[in-house]
Amino acid sequence: MTPTFTFATAQYESGDWDSAPLVPPNIIDTIARYTEIPVTPAGVIVSLASPDLLRYPLLYLTGHLPVRFTDSERRQLREFLERGGMLFVDDHNHDVDGVFHKTATEEITRTIGEPKPLPNTHPLYSAFFKFTDGPPTTSHELNGWGDNLVHKNLFAVMREGRIAVLYSSKDYSSEWGYHPDSKRFQSVDNTKFAVNIVVYALTA
Amino acid sequence: MTARERVAAARRTLGATIGARALLWGLAAGAGLLAIVAVIDMMIGVPRALRVFAVPAAAIAALGVAGYALWRGRRVRSLPAVALWLEERVSALRYALVTALDSPLPSSYLERDIAAVHWAPVIRRTLGHALLPPLVLLAAVATLLFALPAGVRARISAPRAGDSLLRPAGGEIRNRLSPLVAEVIPPAYTGEKHVSLDEPSSVEVLAGSHLVLRGRGAATGITAALNSTPLSPALLRDSADQWRLDIVAPAKPAALELHDRNHSRTVIIAPHADSLPVVTLAAPARDTVIRTPKGALALAAAATDDYGLDAGWFEYIVSSGEGETFTFKSGVIHRVNAGGARSTTLSGALDLDSLQLKPGDLVHVRAVARDRNHITGPGIGVSETRTIRVPRPSEYDSIAVEGAPPTDVDSSQISQRMLIILTEKLQTRRAKLARADVVKESQRIGSDEARLRQHIGEIVFARLGGSQQTEDAGGNNAPAHMTPDQLLAAANAATQASAGATDFEGDETPVVAVNRPLLEAYNAMWDASRSLEVGEPGAALPPMRAALAAIQRARNAERLYLRGKAPVVIVDIAKVRLAGKRDDASSSSRLPRAALDSSAERRAERFDAAVSELASNPAAAIDSLLALRVDALESAPELAGALAPAIDALRAGHNATDALVRARRVAAGVSVARVESPRAAEWSGAW
Fold first, then answer.
1. Chains A and B: how many Cβ contacts under 8 Å?
2. Same domain, B646 and B544
3. Which of A144, A150, B273, B493 lies 20 to 30 Å from B622, alpha-carbon distance?
4. Of A28, A33, A99, the CB nearest to B317
């Protein structure tokens, strides 16, 4: 039986973990559109404190509000990462001075290690599509929302040579937060980078 | 002085002499034993485990010999025995002394004879004979001890870890890497003592500690590398007649390699981190909702640390806003200086009035403690976070609801208003057109009306939980055959769970109230379609206008959506991939990539390779095991722990079979509870 990729969204007790409900179907649509990866049509929501976490290779976490993991969430997430899972964290505030950024990076540091800038030549950027300039910019960055910065790099916590935690301040949660049927109105599909993240999580 | 008094005086002198002799013999025996051990240690080296018994054994020997000497002189306690001893050595007494002591009455005759005899020279001579031999022996032994090197004396008198360098080299130093002494100097903030190790193969250190390695000889020519990265020669320097290497212990496990000409040595540095403070928030005990944010919120927490706390405090963050717009403010309150204590308590109160909380605000509170680790830290520990929420007024209802946008509609369809306009134009031109043209135009409008009706049907039946394909499935079961009331009754019956939950208009449930206008429109559009199909646009206009009015009423209806129910979007994978209806269609076929080797498998392979090399090249095999242990210290600590006794046993030339079997089982992923192995062919240390 061919294993099927299921996109999982992390549910945590603090904050608004469900602030980007349209991102999972949009990424699933993108995976189906560009790859032959067997993919489940709908994503799942999984609690960070649940052992079910270990059933998914990639976990998506976002929000606007402060992130404070409980002990069980931290313990389960650490086990998930140590067993080879990959966590993709996106700051829905797109603000490095924002409280999500500060609290989320603090929790990540305490759980697995401090996120460091990821070189724009990292294999992540050529795992499927080629992004020679690093992570694609978002309209929120270009419009000057949030911290009014265009972030040149993503951040990552590496473990045994691979990305364990990928951290973005670019607000892909807003950029990709639309119904997948509306993708046909985009002159350029801005969700292609999601394919690289999924392919990297499945193959690296 | 009477004869008895003179004998008593002689007994005191003899007693003192016997005591002094016993003391001297005892000292000589003890010192002699120490000297013998020291000489042996200087010549061949005595393990510290044996040297620690040298001083107690010397004390026991001294006490034994002294006791024996006292036992031999025990007769000095008896006055007649002393008198007899004098009679034996002074013949001039002619038993007068014994007789005088035995006589119950004093005899002037005997006293006069005894007074004429002087035995002091005999006593002095005896004293000299008794004390001189032990004195000479003690002097000789003391001379020998003081002639030995001070380091040798220290190794015997106060054996300690790290004293192997105190033993004289004895000629040319062939290998400056043995003996090797490591001294671990923990950071000052820990208050821990220095620890020395002889001949270390692995050093457990607190991260940030100083590690000093020392050996005999000069530092010139000795090189060192940490994880194959050469260390600066400046770190190696001379100290008296020894070389020393000062480094700060790295944060991660590392292999320190030392080289001296053709000699090499590897020391594994296994650091452990200073633990973060453990903070427990006692109050508030749980997340809560405060309807009226007034007064103060009690805060209490406890913090502990393995080496000592520096400070503790409470942190709060207030989040205000909703959707995409949030504002935050944060602060620190009730900071306490712990002063290095290993545990402390925090207490205080959060003034809610000063925060000026509004409905919808969230307050996040937690306790934080910082330790005194200024080397690799500071380590900051935090408690669980408690969230205090100020509810919005709309949340006070038993069923909390909030508005949400309606589902997007397909704007490519012609609206009901447009269809009415087209029909009205056709009706106006009808007298000028041929009947066939009227019918053709009317049917075209009718088909558009049917498409619009079908879309409204999908919306209604999707809401009522029915199949959206009902109309396409067959004409006999089309919902047009049911009256609106029948359809609504069926829908209401299918959703009894919601009946009566809300007091809507009259007796209607939300299901009926929300969908009734669209159902009316749906049925009116059926009537309009039938008239348009037969080329009667005039007859179609009234139901078309009724349908438009019903659609307007539906647009103005109040919509209720359960809060927190995000729309579920299910992607049609086949549609996205343009796969059509054939399951076997695929643009290309790809095979899955071969599974990558796991790190555990790689470690097991490295272990097997090292063990297979033991017979042919033991030194290289031990180095391989050392390198494997360095890598495993962080990623597989259980394997690292199992490798340590195996490496130690191999280095010492002992039987390493049990340890290797245990390590092999750990490397293979088998859980090992105790050290035991079957009696297999044993591998004895050949190196």
1. 71
2. no
3. B273
4. A99
- B330 contact residues in A (CB cutoff 8 A): 99
Q: How far apart are CA A73 and CA A68, in angstroms?
A: 9
Looking at the fold, whether B265 and B288 belong to one and the same domain comes out as no
Question: Which of B157, B176, B192 marks a domain boundary?
Answer: B157
For testing contact with chain B, the best of A5, A68, A91 (most B CBs within 10 A): A68
Tell whether B105 and B45 lie within a shared domain. Answer: yes
Q: Who contacts B107 (Cβ-Cβ below 8 Å, separation ≥6)? A: B100
> B349 with B495, same domain?
no
The pLDDT tens digits for B354-384 are 888 888 888 989 999 999 888 877 888 888 8
Structure tokens at A101: 């950024």
Search chain B and give the residue with CA nearest A181.
B571
Nearest-angstrom CA–CA distance, B148 and A167: 68
Q: Are residues B256 and B367 in the same domain?
A: no
Counting the structural domains of chain B, the total is: 5
Q: Which residues of chain A are at the B interface, by a Cβ-Cβ cutoff of 8 Å?
A: 14, 18, 21-22, 25, 28-29, 32-33, 36, 39, 41-42, 64-66, 68, 70-71, 93, 98-99, 103, 110, 160, 174, 179-180, 203
What ipTM was estimated for this complex? Answer: 0.82
Q: Which amino acid is at A60?
A: Y
Same domain, B287 and B259: no
pLDDT for B211-247, tens place per residue?
A: 998 888 888 888 888 888 888 877 888 777 788 888 8
- The answer to whether the Cβ–Cβ distance between A103 and B317 falls below 8 Å is yes
Q: What is the pLDDT of residues A34-47, one digit of tens each?
A: 999 999 999 999 99
Q: How many CA atoms lie within 13 A of A56 on its CB side?
A: 26
Q: Which domains does chain A have, with CATH numbers?
A: 8-203 (3.40.50.12140)
The domain of B637 spans 599-667
Q: For residue A82, what is the enclosing H or E element? A: helix A71-82
